[in-house]
Amino acid sequence: MPLPRTVAFAVPKDVHLLDLAGPAQVFSTADDVLGGDVGGAYRLAYVSLDGTEGVVSHQGLPLAVRPDWPALSARDLVVVPGWRVGGRSAARPLSAAAEAALRAHHDRGGRVASVCAGAFALAATGLLDGRRATTHHDVQDELARRHPAVQVVRDVLFVVDGRVATSAGIASGIDLALHLVAADHGPAVAARVARTLVVPARRNGSDPQASAMLRHRDHLADLVHRAQDVLDARFAEPLRLDELAGLLQVSPRTLTRRFRAATGLTPLGYQQELRLERAAGLREQGWTQDAAARAAGMADARVLRRLRTTSMHLTE
């Protein structure tokens, strides 16, 4: 079993609790889902962004975070949660030690992410220069004004640009964390985490990096949810429509009709979206097109390219 990934939260003073706790809960629950008692998938660490021993949240809760950064590898993730802004500037001075740690982690191949005003910390390092990024709608204009090299994407839940991810803040940090779990372990695991946390499927936004599993779960059709549970777990298998319908004890025609009414897709179309998303996540991690295609249940890179082209035409 591979070693768990470290998710290091670089916690600022006056942090908003949900900016921190939401993503932390997602990764912790994913660890439970994947068997945290036998190695697990994620190991969480908390470090002060400002190098202090402990911080106090905006909500007044003291947090015991370490002043020094843990040892990190290219497999690991650093998340900078947001802080209370109110009517003030969202920009804050970033210590030389924090800037060096964030840049060094990205330079060695690691991923970095932010929630809400945490985007300003990433921008201060230069890691957002030339990249697409987002932040809370109240401070999008300030981010664009202070950092003109950043391509600010407005009014979306989150943006992933290579190994740098940013989210709009507050509860959208959960959406981003679910996407990252799906990229690491597939949509079936992310679906189990989402259901465990009882989070809404999709609330708003149209970011193309949003999880297909979340995008098409915004309905109340129990039959379709059960079909999606099967597809989420077995999307890489050659699962026939009649086999899926048999598992659910309905006819293929009934399943297709109800599935389309609830999601706008056929079961096959949903399965193909899951495969494309999984392949894209693996490509972000450096897999070849052929390897990513096969891991996602496709014969080779040619099938992946054909499905991607078909998907693009359907959304135009």
Automatic annotation (TrEMBL):
HTH araC/xylS-type domain ranges (all copies): 225-316
PANTHER family on file: ARAC-FAMILY TRANSCRIPTIONAL REGULATOR, HTH-TYPE TRANSCRIPTIONAL REGULATOR RV1931C
Name of the protein this chain belongs to: DJ-1/PfpI family protein
PROSITE patterns for this protein: HTH_ARAC_FAMILY_2 (PS01124)
Gene3D superfamilies assigned: 3.40.50.880, Homeodomain-like (1.10.10.60)
InterPro entries: Class_I_gatase-like, DJ-1/PfpI, Homeodomain-like_sf, HTH_AraC, INH-QAR
Signal peptide: none
Alphabetic keyword roster: Transcription, Transcription regulation
